[in-house]
Design goal:
The protein has 24 helices and 21 strands. Strands 12, 13, 14, 15, 16 and 17 form a 6-stranded antiparallel beta sheet that branches. Strand 18, helix 22 and strand 19 form a beta-alpha-beta unit. It folds into 6 domains: 52 residues, Helix hairpin bin (Helix Hairpins, Orthogonal Bundle); 235 residues, DNA ligase/mRNA capping enzyme (D-amino Acid Aminotransferase, Chain A, domain 1), CATH 3.30.470.30; 76 residues, Beta Barrel (OB fold (Dihydrolipoamide Acetyltransferase, E2P)), CATH 2.40.50.140; 73 residues, Orthogonal Bundle (DNA polymerase, domain 1), CATH 1.10.150.20; 72 residues, 5' to 3' exonuclease, C-terminal subdomain (DNA polymerase, domain 1); 69 residues, BRCT domain (Rossmann fold, 3-Layer(aba) Sandwich), CATH 3.40.50.10190. The chain is an alpha+beta fold. Helix 16 packs across helix 17. Bound molecules: nicotinamide-adenine-dinucleotide and zinc ion (ZN). Nicotinamide-adenine-dinucleotide binds next to helix 1, helix 2 and strand 3. Zinc ion binds next to loops. GO terms for molecular function: ligase activity. Keywords: DNA damage, DNA repair, DNA replication, Ligase, Magnesium, Manganese, Metal-binding, NAD, Zinc. It comes from Persicobacter psychrovividus. Pfam families: BRCT, DNA_ligase_aden, DNA_ligase_ZBD, HHH_2, HHH_5, Nlig-Ia, OB_DNA_ligase. This is DNA ligase.
């Protein structure tokens, strides 16, 4: 391969890996299996080794994959939270063993090498700081250097001691894995609508820890195993002692670990747990092998991303072979069509698999799927299995290629596919039953209008009886209407109507999200609300202005324009306005601190204090924060000494520019 091509491949691998990292850590979902992901990463690691001249210092091979969020306070870790090197092969493990022994020989401490083997729990890493026996701080791993402060959420984990007894170091950190048991995962999923179900316990755990409302987290019944301690002057010298000691302090330590002195013993442990792990109450995806002695750990040290004294061995995802019976199609809330493969039942990872997701038409094409094909199905921690391949040699001669449907299976409208997009859509947004019901379900959900007096079944009834055909109809519902539904009595009917009425207090950005405009998620809704301030302006906003809003790309901008170009939508919006929903952002609550007199600020560039904190203080002092320019902006805050595009624009528009120090002065006055 020419070197330019290698460089190209490395760049494109990094891009793809970053994309999957983003999905995995920020959005709690994945498009490929962990094994496929690890293959990509390993390919990049290999290329960087062979072509160090092309290695990018910011490569995903050099960084822990996650990030911090904006929703929690960010905390710098006292001790970095790292990832683990991983492998799927015995050969690599033997190499690891050799490396460790060699590394220690140099230090003269190779004798009496011991490993502790543990199961690799598939959840979310957490770090807990205890001071004077009390849980003081809980953080996520984040980017390894900084994590989210999720103390309130961690406190809902019942097996996590809040107060410790006994002889303890004054301050120390314990680290472990927060997880959701299979049982709890199934219980939770059973309460969710088909389209809202979580894919696997890990994603659910991650999503739960990110919830803003700890009361909701508490309902999720998370659990936690601890497997590491950090601190100064700790009363132990080996990992094994650490595990035993923290157990005696009251921490939940899984008793599945084992001390091994040879790599053969490690391999036996791996073989033993391959089947046994499936009877554990939680998901595991491999085992972790750690050097036992702290002194030896220290001598071996760390790479940029992981300790040299530990490695994860991951079990191959389970693969089953079965026959495709048919492909059916589901219609989502926004009309997107998802093909589903119906399979002849096959036993896989302890469950019977009958269906697998096919994502979209590209996937069917990629697999070159034909009728009655024999297919390989994989289930790597995912609840929804994936078809990973087709046994073409077993294909029946007359079998035809699977053709993606042309009409909506629910309303028979001709499907459309937008240039450059993977999904097909049913364009009949206001007349297609699953879209109508899906939109209403989206509208009432907690993050949107938060109408908890309505449930999926009630919506179904309201729709069946023709009482509700769109979200605006909800606000015309009367107690008599409610009483006409099955199972409703005076009290429950009143409650239902009352609940709808209470939702009128929902802030504008949530109303905007509730409309269910394609691609307008919660974050984008907030950005749009901040920028346009009211529905009226947003509604007539030209494409270019929409695209200029941070986080709003071409696709989103176009989707917003399309939405408001459809008269059926604007009619609904108008009816919602008449019903009394909030159609503009709230005037800032000036409260008793009106220092900044409602003036608006836009922060740009780097600051000595975290931007979110500065923004919080501006709001608390009666100012407004804008994430981008508009004519209404009063101040641009920037520390930059050179002219930036923003400061230039501010000067042109006659907007005052403040330094951070000047902002501080305004805040303090
Ligand atoms: N499918 C995808 O698109 C996708 C995308 C990104 C990452 N991933 C997966 O995520 C993983 C990469 O994430 P990572 O960097 O967090 O590495 P990792 O999850 O493989 O290993 C590090 C983590 O293991 C956990 N762990 C569980 N049990 C442990 C134990 N007994 N001792 C120590 N640690 C233990 C800790 O949380 C630690 O942070 C890979 O397995 C990868 O396949 C998948
Ligand atoms: Zn349809």
């Amino acid at each position: 391969m020419a070197t330019t091509e290698i460089k190209k491949e490395m760049d494109s691998l990094a891009k793809v890996i970053n994309h999957h990292n983003h999905l995995y850590y920020q959005e709690d979902r994945s498009e490929i299996s962990d094994q496929e992901f690890d293959q990509l990463l390993n390919r990049l690691i290999g290329l960087e080794k062979d072509y160090p001249e092309f290695a990018d210092p910011n490569s995903p091979t050099q960084r822990v994959g996650g990030t911090v969020t904006k929703n929690f306070e960010n905390v710098v870790h006292k001790y970095r939270m790292l990832s683990l090197g991983n492998t799927y092969s015995e050969e690599d493990l033997r190499e690891f063993d050799q490396r460790v022994r060699k590394g220690l020989e140099g230090e003269g401490i190779a004798e009496e090498l011991e490993y502790i083997c543990e199961l690799k729990f598939d959840g979310v890493a957490i770090s807990l700081t205890y001071r004077n026996g009390q849980l003081a701080l809980a953080t996520t791993r984040g980017d390894g250097t900084r994590g989210d402060n999720i103390t309130a959420n961690a406190k809902t984990i019942r097996t996590l001691p809040l107060q410790l007894q006994g002889q303890l170091p004054e301050e120390f950190e314990v680290r472990g894995e927060v997880f959701m048991s299979h049982k709890e995962f199934e219980r939770l999923n059973a309460t969710l609508a088909e389209g809202d179900k979580y894919a696997n316990p890990r994603n659910t755990t991650s999503g739960s820890l990110k919830l803003q409302d700890s009361a909701l987290v508490a309902k999720r019944k998370l659990d936690c195993y601890l497997y590491a301690v950090l601190g100064e002057n700790l009363p132990f010298t080996t990992h094994e002692e650490a595990l035993e000691t923290i157990k005696s302090w009251g921490f939940n330590v899984s008793q599945t670990y084992r001390k091994c002195t040879t790599i053969e013993q490690v391999l036996t442990y791996i073989a033993e747990w391959e089947e046994k792990r499936k009877s554990l109450p939680l998901e595991t995806d491999g085992i972790v092998i750690k050097v036992n002695s702290y002194k030896q750990q220290q001598a071996l040290g760390y790479t940029a991303k992981s300790p040299r004294w530990a490695i994860a061995y991951k079990y191959q995802a389970e693969v089953g072979i079965t026959r495709l019976s048919s492909v059916t199609y589901q219609v989502g809330r926004t009309g997107s069509i998802t093909p589903v493969a119906n399979l002849e039942p096959v036993a896989l990872a302890g469950t019977t698999v009958r269906r697998a997701s096919l994502h979209n038409a590209n996937e069917i094409e990629r697999l070159d799927l034909h009728q009655s094909d024999m297919v390989t199905v994989e289930k790597g921690g995912e609840i929804i299995p994936k078809i990973t391949g087709v046994l073409t040699e077993e294909r029946q001669e007359a079998a035809e290629a699977i053709q993606f449907i042309e009409e909506c299976p629910e309303c028979k409208t001709t499907l459309i596919r937008v240039e450059g997009e993977a999904n097909h859509y049913c364009p009949n947004t206001t007349g297609c039953p699953p879209q109508i019901k899906g939109k209403i379900e989206h509208f009432i959900q907690r993050k949107a209008m938060n109408i908890d007096s309505l449930g999926e079944r009630t919506i179904d009834q309201l729709f069946q009886r023709g009482l509700v055909k769109n979200v605006a109809d909800l606000f015309d519902l009367t107690i008599e209407d409610a009483l006409s539904l099955e199972g409703f009595k005076e009290k429950s009917a009143q409650k239902m109507v009352e609940g709808i009425k209470q939702s009128l207090a929902t802030p504008f950005e949530q109303v905007l999200f509730a409309l269910g405009i394609r691609y307008v998620g919660q974050t984008v809704a907030v950005k749009l609300a901040e920028h346009f301030e009211q529905m009226e302006t947003l509604r007539y906003a030209p494409l270019e202005e929409l695209e200029a809003v941070p986080d709003v790309g071409k696709q989103i901008a176009k989707s917003v324009v399309d939405y408001f170009n459809d008269e059926k939508n604007t009619q609904i919006v108008e009816r919602l306005e008449q019903a009394g929903l909030k159609m503009k952002i709230e005037a800032v609550d000036l409260g008793d601190n009106d220092q900044l007199g409602g003036k608006s600020f836009c922060l740009s560039g780097k600051f000595s204090t975290k931007k979110s904190i500065l923004e919080g203080r501006i709001k608390a002092s009666g100012g407004k924060v804008m994430s981008s320019f508009s004519k209404k902006l009063d101040y641009l805050v920037s520390n930059s000494e050179k002219e930036t595009t923003k400061t230039k624009k501010a000067k042109e528009m006659g907007i005052a520019i403040l330094s951070e120090v000047q902002l501080e002065q305004m805040l303090e006055n």
